[in-house]
């Protein structure tokens, strides 16, 4: 696994990235942004796919199956609602 | 579980995950400005697509899975994705907060499931990996059950309030459940063997119970903060499970969301002038039977009402009108009518502004989404800090279903539970009109001094029908 200082570096850099990306977001975008970051952690889907592919017992397969359903729900649902919200944001300057 | 990815397949997967991480970060960056936001989610979406497609040939899966397993996997993706797709397409913008809570809970549940599969079959992955997996499992499970409770509460399926004693008991049980779960997890990690199934089940039941008990006592007004917190927690859980699976895409995406979500949670708590601990443990917005707030200073004066038609005429002859929408607008689905009214006023040469409090609605920025849905351009919409100096130059502040966020008591009354919360200075406008269903109080249960001011007129009724009458009033004035 990715261990030791490499892991720490990854966490540190990714953590700062997340912080910086959000720090300058105007309040009007807070809801879509929460929804967008909610979509991004839908990447859990790939982990649950690996887990299901890997499961050895019947119970393991069942839990993995449910995991993939949940992960896919997170990814797809997060995407659909975020896109719907963001499509709506328009400026008045365009029509003028 | 193989921990290294070798061969051409492994190389391809690492490359794809790298591209995914870059696309996610670019996408989130894009989402930080209204101009590029719609593009941003598409970037992030293509990153996700790349990662999922490539994972189908992941060596960790190829080595174990037969055709049946693949069919099961693709079936699960179609079921979960399909349901979420239809749900997401059909949900009304007003109900967006609970939908996000639901999807977030699913992510937490998936993280928990990943850990469960590892514990059930193949715990021989090293103690460190197992330990991180255990932590991720607890956090993911708490986020899962907590988000479902948040969903049920926001969707109005669960309306219970608790007394102070009950809250204290829940907190105690919560701590015990979390403590035992953690203990079981740590022991598992230290022993490093596959634990008995019954232990795994007990572990998850305890963690799920803890999540329910975290979310149950939270009052309606605090829900946005909690959803955001669960969002950050799911990110963290995903990152931890990513370490267990040795999956860099999960580690990076999870950590980015964890950090971003924590910051967002902080921003929200600050906008309400409360600490996160206060939100989690104070139970504001919960009925507590012993008459809290009895020390509040009594408000003098009376509420004066106004006919919608007269209000419309007043608006028509104003120079500057500031709209202050709140959750009442969302409930009545009045955003379209409000924009119709605003357009009429703009055509008459009235300067129109929309003022949005950071925590108006059920989610920060919720009002912005609803106004955007109605077609209100975002350059007419202003934040608390931008708009507050402008209220003193406005002829009318039109408050539509907002309450606590315009309550001057927050500035003046030290005994009030909302004392210190930054508010929109609607009271400084020459005239204030408040569209409101009835005489009740807001979430916090605090009387609103704004309604009793000499320059305030109450326009009673459902926001949608009142605004329709205002529109008629404006039209008659031309």
What this model shows, in words?
- The complex is a heterodimer of chains A (96) and B (478).
- By secondary structure, chain A is an all-alpha fold.
- Chain A is built from five helices and no strands.
- Chain A is flat.
- Chain B has 478 residues and is of the alpha/beta class.
- Chain B has helices spanning 7-30, 37-55, 59-62, 67-90, 96-121, 127-154, 164-191, 197-215, 223-245, 248-271, 276-282, 308-316, 327-332, 335-347, 366-374, 384-387, 409-412, 463-476; strands spanning 320-325, 351-356, 381-383, 396-400, 431-436, 456-460.
- In chain B, strands 3-2-1-4-5-6 form a six-stranded parallel sheet.
- In chain B, helix 15 links the parallel strand 2 and strand 3 (381-383).
- In chain B, helix 6 (127-154) runs antiparallel to helix 7 (164-191), helix 7 (164-191) runs antiparallel to helix 8 (197-215) and helix 12 (308-316) packs across helix 18 (463-476).
- At the A-B interface, helix 1, helix 2, helix 3, helix 4 and helix 5 of A face helix 1, helix 2, helix 3, helix 4 and helix 5 of B.
Structural class of chain B, by secondary structure, is alpha/beta
- H/E order of the elements of chain B? HHHHHHHHHHHHEHHEHEHEHEEH
Order of helices and strands of chain A: HHHHH
The rough form of chain B would be described as elongated
Uncertain spans of chain A: none
* Number of continuous helical runs of chain A: 5
Mean pLDDT of chain B: 85
What tags apply to this protein structure?
heterodimer, A: 96 residues, mainly alpha, 5 helices, flat, B: alpha/beta, six-stranded parallel β-sheet, 18 helices, 6 strands, 60% helix, elongated
How does the SSE layout of this entry go?
The complex is a heterodimer of chains A (about 100) and B (about 475).
Chain A: H1 4-23, H2 30-40, H3 44-54, H4 58-87, H5 92-95
Helix pairs in contact in A: 2-4, 3-4
Chain B: H1 7-30, H2 37-55, H3 59-62, H4 67-90, H5 96-121, H6 127-154, H7 164-191, H8 197-215, H9 223-245, H10 248-271, H11 276-282, H12 308-316, E1 320-325, H13 327-332, H14 335-347, E2 351-356, H15 366-374, E3 381-383, H16 384-387, E4 396-400, H17 409-412, E5 431-436, E6 456-460, H18 463-476
Parallel strand pairs in B: 1-2, 1-4, 2-3, 4-5, 5-6
């Amino acid at each position: 696994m990715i261990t030791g200082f490499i892991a720490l570096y990854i966490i540190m850099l990714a953590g700062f990235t997340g912080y910086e990306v959000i720090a300058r977001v105007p309040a009007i975008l807070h809801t879509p942004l929460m929804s967008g970051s909610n979509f991004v952690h839908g990447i859990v889907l790939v982990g649950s796919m690996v887990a299901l592919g890997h499961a050895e017992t019947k119970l393991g397969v069942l839990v993995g199956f449910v995991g993939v359903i949940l992960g896919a729900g997170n990814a797809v649902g997060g995407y659909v609602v975020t896109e719907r919200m963001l499509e709506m944001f328009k400026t008045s300057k365009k029509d003028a | 579980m193989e921990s290294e990815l070798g061969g051409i397949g492994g190389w391809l997967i690492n490359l794809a995950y790298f591209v995914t991480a870059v696309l996610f970060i670019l996408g989130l960056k894009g989402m930080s400005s209204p101009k590029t936001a719609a593009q941003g989610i598409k970037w992030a979406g293509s990153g996700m697509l790349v990662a999922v497609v490539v994972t189908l040939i992941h060596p960790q899966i190829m080595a174990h899975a037969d055709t049946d397993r693949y069919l099961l996997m693709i079936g699960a993706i179609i079921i979960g994705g399909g349901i979420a797709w239809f749900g997401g397409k059909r949900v009304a913008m007003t109900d967006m907060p609970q939908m996000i809570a639901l999807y977030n809970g699913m992510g937490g549940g998936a993280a928990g499931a990943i850990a469960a599969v590892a514990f059930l079959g193949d715990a021989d992955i090293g103690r460190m990996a197992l330990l991180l997996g255990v932590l991720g499992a607890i956090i993911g499970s708490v986020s899962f059950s907590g988000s479902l409770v948040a969903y049920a509460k926001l969707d109005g399926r669960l309306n219970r309030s608790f007394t102070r004693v009950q809250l204290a008991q829940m907190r105690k049980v919560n701590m015990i459940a979390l403590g035992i779960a953690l203990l079981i997890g740590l022991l598992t990690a230290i022993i490093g063997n596959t634990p008995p199934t019954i232990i795994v089940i007990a572990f998850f039941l305890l963690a799920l119970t803890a999540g329910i008990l975290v979310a149950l006592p939270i009052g309606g007004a605090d829900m946005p903060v909690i959803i955001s917190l669960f969002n950050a927690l799911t990110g963290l859980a995903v990152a931890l499970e990513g370490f267990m699976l040795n999956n860099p895409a999960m580690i990076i995406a999870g950590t980015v969301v964890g950090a971003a979500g924590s910051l967002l949670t902080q921003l929200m708590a600050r906008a309400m002038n409360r600490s996160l601990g206060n939100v989690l443990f104070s139970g504001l917005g919960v009925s507590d039977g012993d008459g809290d707030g009895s020390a509040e200073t009594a408000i003098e004066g009376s509420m004066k009402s106004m006919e919608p038609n007269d209000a419309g005429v007043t608006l028509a002859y104003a120079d500057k009108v500031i709209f202050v929408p709140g959750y009442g607008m969302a409930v009545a689905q009045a955003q379209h009518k409000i924009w119709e009214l605003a357009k009429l006023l703009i055509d008459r040469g009235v300067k129109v502004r929309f003022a949005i409090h950071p925590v108006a609605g059920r989610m920060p920025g919720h009002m912005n989404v609803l106004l955007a849905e109605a077609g209100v351009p975002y350059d007419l919409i202003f934040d608390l800090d931008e708009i507050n100096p402008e209220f003193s130059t406005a002829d009318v502040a039109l408050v539509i279903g907002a309450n606590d966020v315009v309550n001057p008591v927050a500035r003046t009354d030290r005994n009030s539970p909302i004392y210190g919360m930054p508010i929109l200075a609607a009271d400084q406008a020459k005239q204030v009109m408040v569209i409101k269903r009835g005489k009740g109080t807001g979430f916090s249960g605090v009387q609103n001094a704004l309604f009793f001011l000499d320059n305030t007129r109450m326009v009673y009724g459902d926001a949608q029908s009142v605004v329709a009458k205002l529109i008629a009033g404006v039209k008659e004035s031309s």
